[in-house]
């Protein structure tokens, strides 16, 4: 989606990805199929490019540094270094005074057992590295068996954090350019099912004051990081209106996919603008919208029949062209625009439920 957008803006694209059938390859002028630490592929990518960016966090920071020695890389590799590792991310937030869940770093079953004693209620054990879509996480409580939990998570380092009784999850996307100007999308409201984003509602159904707090917080984080590019800030909203930062991602984000239809400038275009030194674009909402992720589970009886979806006014179907559908794998998404959020959700259920039923899945909740 980033490459498609860059293409529309008149750029040529070189892509490095270990997977020869990666979704960007059909729209790239140059596709380098190599691991992310292949230094000759990294050199070729740098030589072919004027500016390099990324849309995936599990890249060795050393690889970005190699490219940065001869080409501009945005966001700066030091930002990925913080955001790709939960301990560094949590330490950054804490030392900078940004509100976040209470946490403890653990590297063994005995440290886990000690840490559990300092949390009175439910907790979450999260792998320090490589987690996504709720993977590498275990919900625990004070009575949990720490030896068993440590064996189950099977990672060298993890973060134990308090379970947050949030009333809502929201996210904010902020873009910042090299001149230090920032533009923030209004907050997105997110619902996760089994740790995976199920839907995003835009604009988030929150009071204006909370939206403003969330946007201010995102800008302050972007400034503190020295961001040039795009940053997603995932937040928990508490019943008293406070916000806690859950995660940072220095890239386009799943919750921002609907900006392609709902804003004059999409998150993809905004990232390209920011890293290419162009003026940042207008992000005021054009329409209420809801996005549903299309997971591989829907492919259980083969590829769904998209004809009724395509016939729905206000529906935009995005399929990523991934070759294999696996349960929980994000295969595409569906954005619905309507005159109200309620109507967009109703349209979403109406179009999605027959497909879900065919795949043996329960209907969407409202
Ligand atoms: N401390 C927590 N308290 C309550 N729910 C949590 C907590 N941490 C994560 N979650 C839930 O799990 C989802 C995924 O966790 P997250 O830390 O964002 O990891 P990732 O998105 O990288 O898989 C969150 O969006 C939220 O729904
Ligand atoms: Mg997350």
Q: What features would you highlight for this structure?
A:
single chain, 366 residues, alpha+beta, Rossmann fold, D-amino Acid Aminotransferase, Chain A, domain 1, nine-stranded antiparallel β-sheet, four-stranded antiparallel β-sheet, binds magnesium ion
Explain how this protein is built:
With 366 residues, the chain is α+β, with helices and mostly antiparallel strands. It has three domains: 12-83, Rossmann fold, CATH 3.40.50.20; 102-162, ATP-grasp fold, A domain (Dna Ligase, domain 1, 2-Layer Sandwich), CATH 3.30.1490; 168-358, 2-Layer Sandwich (D-amino Acid Aminotransferase, Chain A, domain 1), CATH 3.30.470. It contains twelve helices and 17 strands. Strands 9, 10, 11, 12, 13, 14, 15, 16 and 17 form a nine-stranded antiparallel sheet that branches. A four-stranded antiparallel sheet has the order 5-8-6-7, with helices on both faces. A two-stranded parallel sheet has the order 1-2. Helix 1 (2-8) crosses helix 10 and helix 6 (109-117) crosses helix 7. The radius of gyration is 21 Å and the shape is globular. The protein starts with a helix and ends in an 8-residue tail after the last helix. The relative contact order is 0.11. The model has no long low-confidence stretch (mean pLDDT 97). Magnesium ion binds at residues 234, 247.
